[in-house]
Write a structure and sequence with these properties.
Blueprint lengths: L2 E4 L4 E4 L7 E6 L10 H19 L3 E8 L4 H11 L5 H21 L7 E5 L4 H13 L3 E4 L2 E4 L1 H7 L20 E2 L11 E7 L17 E3 L1 H12 L5 E7 L3 H12 L7 E7 L2 E3 L14 H8 L3 H9 L7 E3 L1 H19 L9 H11 L5 H13 L4 H15 L3 H8 L4 H15 L3 H13 L2 E5 L4 E5 L2
Parallel strand pairs: 3-4, 3-11, 4-5, 8-9, 11-12, 13-14
Antiparallel strand pairs: 1-2, 6-7, 7-9, 9-10, 15-16
Helix pairs in contact: 2-3, 4-6, 6-7, 9-10, 11-12, 11-13, 12-13, 15-16
């Protein structure tokens, strides 16, 4: 039984999909105005972990991730690069660069990229226009000189639940009816928010024409509502994921602008916590904003060491990134790879440990406990083939490429085979000096040899 912490109810709940054995999963994806930092990638790994866990439980998952390529940041940076004549084609070219870089990063950390349906905002502008017009027609949006805004007061009169993601008393003492044009703002600046932004001089030639809405472009919040609407055909989205920083205003506004069209919008909201760097939030002014390539270049790590590090912390807990913790994760991953390299072909798993692992991941994706099960199994007395069978099952969730690593480790060079044979002969003849010399030669080729009462165990060093 899979249980997930639902931000909407603030409770751990048994997950029940709307349709039997089918799940609609939506993830707020990157804003492609720059390279994604490691905090963004933590959110991506969290969503991937959820996707894999749902699959592990036998559920068929449709996973959709939006790509925000129209917003204040992408337009600003496009106009900086292309100048005052920047147009929509330039915006696409500019954001292509960072979208492609994001896809390369998530391949390196082994996201289930082939299972994700990416939807770009640039590709659904017509659908966004139609959605906004429907809100105007229903009386939940109104046009002004600088765009089209969502009417929170009207919504509250009819639904009474604006801000339910934030808390029941969120609207107490708040003045309604004022407007805010920018995409991001704090709770103290609660306002009617922009669905469609009228063209401004700073937008250059990045705009769309529409007789009813006027010349302009979509606001940020409406984009995710429309992509959900398109992806799941106006049916309830089972699970919506994102970072805790998106609870307000983004996810709060998504709910409000969608429910006049159809409801419920989303059944389960899951939010991942921040990644800190040496105890502080990332900020350019602090010089502590890192991208994946920074990690690879500084420590020459396997990118999956970063994934392993993310798995050591629960997704709802803050994770403090340090260079020491990353190196420790790399060491742990190396040890894991070295251990499995000595195992025989997988067969007949370890039921007790498989049950413990399932209970861990089904308890709100408890990856620290799941990793503890992994190491408990490795230290157990089960034979290697049984351990490997279970570990390969676990890796369907963990995504550490254990199968590929084990297969590669089984390829023993011919020169090494000769050394192993010669060493066994030396041991049989009790020629211990020669045996030790051959051990050193074997180790120089990147392997560890452990003598047993009968034969030996060979491990590959990582």
């Amino acid at each position: 039984m899979l249980k997930l912490y639902n931000s909407l109810t603030r409770k751990l709940e048994e997950f029940q999909p709307t349709k039997k054995n089918q799940v609609g999963l939506y993830t707020c994806g990157p804003t492609v105005y720059n390279y994604q930092h490691i905090g963004n990638l933590r959110s991506s790994i969290f969503a991937d972990l959820l996707f894999r866990t749902l699959n592990y439980n036998g559920l068929k998952v449709k996973w959709v991730m939006n790509i925000t390529d129209i917003d204040d940041k992408t337009i600003k940076n496009t106009t900086i690069e292309y100048g005052p004549q920047a147009n929509v084609a330039n915006l696409r070219t500019f954001t292509d660069r960072y979208l492609n870089a994001f896809k390369e990063d998530i391949k390196k950390i082994n996201l289930s990229i082939k299972s994700v349906k990416f939807i770009r905002v640039l590709d659904v502008v017509d659908e966004i226009k139609h959605f906004i017009k429907s809100l105007i027609k229903k009386g939940y949006a109104y046009k002004t000189a600088d765009g089209v805004y969502f009417n929170i007061e009207k919504y509250q009169q009819n639904f009474g639940d604006y801000g339910k993601l934030v808390g029941e008393n969120f609207l107490k003492g708040q003045k309604l009816g004022v407007r805010v044009r920018v995409d991001e703002y704090d709770k103290e600046n609660l306002s009617d928010f922009a669905l469609w932004k009228a063209k401004e001089e700073d937008d250059a030639n990045i705009f769309w024409e529409n007789a009813e809405l006027g010349r302009g472009r979509p606001g940020w919040h409406i984009e995710c509502s429309v992509i959900n609407y398109i992806a799941f055909k106006s049916s309830t989205t089972d699970i919506h994921t994102g970072g805790v920083d998106l609870i307000f205003p983004h996810h709060t506004n998504e709910i409000a602008q969608t429910q006049p069209i159809y409801k419920p919008f989303v059944n389960y909201w899951l939010h991942g916590e921040h990644l800190l760097v040496a105890g502080e939030k990332m900020a350019k002014s602090k010089g502590n904003v890192y991208v994946l390539d920074d990690l690879i270049k500084k420590l020459n790590i396997n990118p999956l060491a970063f994934r392993y590090l993310i798995l050591t912390s629960h997704y709802r807990s803050k994770l403090n990134f340090t260079w020491e913790s990353l190196q420790a994760a790399q060491n742990a991953l190396n040890n894991l790879y070295t251990e499995i390299s000595a195992y025989e072909k997988p067969k007949i798993g370890c039921a007790e440990y498989e049950q413990n692992f399932l209970e861990a991941i089904n308890n709100d994706l408890d990856t620290p406990k799941a990793l503890a099960v992994v190491w408990d199994l490795i230290r157990s007395d089960y034979p290697g083939h049984a351990k490997l069978q279970s570990l390969l099952k676990f890796d369907k969730v963990l995504g550490l490429k254990l199968r590929e690593t084990w297969k590669a480790s089984q390829k023993i060079p011919a020169t090494l085979k000769k050394l192993l044979t010669a060493r066994e002969q030396a041991r049989a003849a009790k020629d211990f000096q020669k045996s030790d010399d051959l051990r050193h030669q074997i180790e120089s080729q990147g392997f560890i040899i452990e003598d047993l009462s009968h034969g030996y165990r060979l491990k590959k060093k990582f």
